[in-house]
Design goal:
Shape: globular
Helix content: 40-55%
Order of helices and strands: HEEHEEEHHHHHHHHHEEH
Number of domains: 2
């Protein structure tokens, strides 16, 4: 593990991730391969500490069992409870509902501050295990992305290790968008991070497509780039009526999330059907086995996103500026027949 969340596998037994902002351990984790996944299974929820007394919370209709495996947090557990509630509400707002009705969260402590790393389990009931610095401050918890990332994993069914780029890409992409929609992070900051980090997801020499190139960059930012391209193309195809968010909501509703095993083709078909396009299926067909070239500077220009000294300047006269803004705006829609159609 590194200072920030860095783990190595994605399976229904446990979804772990390398920090998308740091690439430290990825190669060594890949070398561990199936042995690492097998160890994760054996060391899953049943192997966790069982002596913690949980706090029972009801957040947005979700029954949360919150267990503090350590009680040595400098600022008490109250800011941590607020952090859990806030993160759950952010994810619930993005998906229209939280992916599961019951969730166990086990919090352990380590030296220093900040939120360190997490693991999400689905096979034996939704469980998130997360490590937090015992000197963590309320400000650090307010700005945390790790728990939202972990909770987002609960909304997508297990698509298998060869498609880890979709699991991680969705979590990376949705974290920023969901927090911006909830007012927890400025939209311009999310766009600045994407402009700086999306190039890491571009194919490099020798790339064999997303399903066969499991480097850190392609897994996390390549997956996130797939989501961004899909979001923009869905909105272009529907005249900005709906986007990737509606597709992901439909997948979460139909599958029940990480508790299910779905082939990736089913995920994409259900998502496409929800928005009335073939964008997801066609984008996957073009990128799964071959490197898909993406002109990022042209994409940013069309969206009206101009990188500038570590941040970005947004231009409202750009061709796709309305799509850019719609992505970061929480949709207002009806619930007729379970749809995500915008309310007229």
């Amino acid at each position: 593990m590194s200072v920030r969340p860095e783990t190595c596998a994605d399976s229904r037994a446990g979804v772990n991730y390398i920090n998308p902002r740091e690439s430290g351990m990825f190669r060594s984790c890949l070398r561990a391969g199936g042995l690492f996944v097998a160890m994760l299974w054996l060391a899953g929820p049943a192997a966790a500490e069982m002596d913690a007394r949980p706090q029972m919370l009801d957040v947005d209709g979700v029954r949360v069992s919150l267990e503090f495996l350590d009680s040595d947090f400098t600022n008490s557990s109250e800011p941590l409870v607020a952090w859990v509630k806030r993160s759950l509400s952010i994810v619930a707002a993005y998906y229209g509902h939280f992916p599961v009705s019951q969730l166990r969260i086990r919090v352990s402590s380590t030296g220093g501050g900040g939120v360190r790393h997490g693991t999400t389990f689905g096979a034996h009931g939704a469980l998130i295990r997360i490590t937090v610095g015992r000197e963590v401050t309320p400000a650090e918890l307010l700005n945390d992305w790790v728990l939202v990332h972990e909770m987002t994993h609960l909304a997508l069914p297990d698509v298998g290790p060869e498609h880890i780029w979709l699991s991680e890409g969705v979590a990376v992409y949705v974290e920023g968008v969901a927090r911006a929609q909830a007012g927890n992070r400025p939209a311009v900051e999310v766009w600045a991070e994407q402009a700086a980090s999306m190039p890491r997801g571009l194919p490099q020499p020798g790339d064999a497509g997303l399903d066969h190139t499991h480097t850190w960059g392609r897994t996390y930012w390549g997956g996130a780039l797939f989501c961004l391209l899909a979001d923009v193309q869905i909105r272009q195809s529907t005249r900005n009526r709906v986007g990737l968010q509606s597709a992901l909501r439909a997948v979460a509703r139909a599958s029940g999330g990480l508790v299910s095993d779905w082939p990736i083709e089913r995920v994409l078909t259900v998502g496409d059907a929800a928005v009335g396009t073939k964008v997801l299926e066609e984008l996957y067909a073009r990128s799964k086995d071959t490197p898909l070239a993406t002109d990022l500077p042209a994409l940013w220009q069309s969206l009206g996103i101009e990188p500038e000294s570590g941040t970005v300047k947004l231009h409202d006269d750009a061709p796709l500026a309305k799509i850019r803004d719609a992505i970061m705006r929480s949709p207002v829609h009806s619930t007729v027949a379970g749809s995500d159609r915008p309310t007229p």
